[in-house]
Known about the structure:
The chain is α/β, with parallel strands linked by helices. The protein has helices at 50-67, 69-82, 86-92, 105-113, 126-138, 177-185, 217-234, 246-252, 273-290, 296-305; strands spanning 2-5, 95-99, 118-123, 145-149, 162-168, 188-204, 256-267, 322-332.
Amino acid sequence: MTPTQGTGGLAGDALGAGPGSEPERGRGPAREAGPDTGRDTGPDTGIHGGHEAEHQAEHAAEQEAELHAGFLAEAAHWLHGLFGPADRATAAVRRILDVGSGPGVASHALADAFPEAHVVAVDRSAALLARAEARAAEHGLAGRISTRRADRPEEFARSGPVDLIWTGNVCRHLGDQQAALRSLASALRPGGLLAVAERGLPPRFLPRDIGIGRPGLQARLDAAVEEQVTARRSRLPGATSVVEDWPCLLASAGLVPAGTRTFLIEFPAPLDLPVRRHLHTRLHRLLADLGDRLDLVDRLTVEQLLDGDACTGVLWRPDAFYLTAVTVHTARLCRPRPAG
């Protein structure tokens, strides 16, 4: 587990959300946004309340992506090493697909790690793809990062063949995760690599006892999120239950597992304001999404944490921190796919 510690504010770019960011949207096709991203901003990162809800989800996805920039850069360089020595990796990787790109943070990290490659950012959200294009232009990468809108897993492969596919928190928001992996695998060239960022550890940002409400609020929020995710997965089109053994799922997609690594993302207390704003956004979405899953005491406690003028609010309290972990699973296509 490798620490990526924030020093003096946001790390930069972050975990890509998927073309969608919600189970119903299919995040990014993925994030829990997903973003992916990454974009795991809460139990629901999809679009359910018109344009305002969509804007809020996209804003939350970009906030989280910024927090995860350090992790994404580190993960991209780790993937570079999986292709062998630097000169061999540079020669081998010329085309990359970032599925569930969100605002293009992962696309930027991948373009930096593979300087000879062209990156295609794929997402469901036209607004987030516009942000990805703007980000690429801001960093002088407009000629090396392009965007493509896609809604369904069967569309992923249409940008292929590619040498590397990155997907952050996408598959978990699609009904048939195994079919999604097969679709992604079908876009790879022989020797190509698929990197799937799924799960890890949920974000932690509060001590067990925060001095208001009942101790253990964070654990109860996490439990409520898991219950909601499970319920939403059961309602996805084509929902299929699988054991989420990602190396096994990748092998069943015709690939050879190439390694798994978990990355730690940490911003210790006291937090800078941008991280606090992200936590405020996250709590606001949790309160709106979890509804009756929280009892009255916990709902009132979250409302106090959202109070921007109170010293007990997350925007001010000195004990707030940000700690999460993202696990990346990789697998390689080791033989040519049969024709037809």
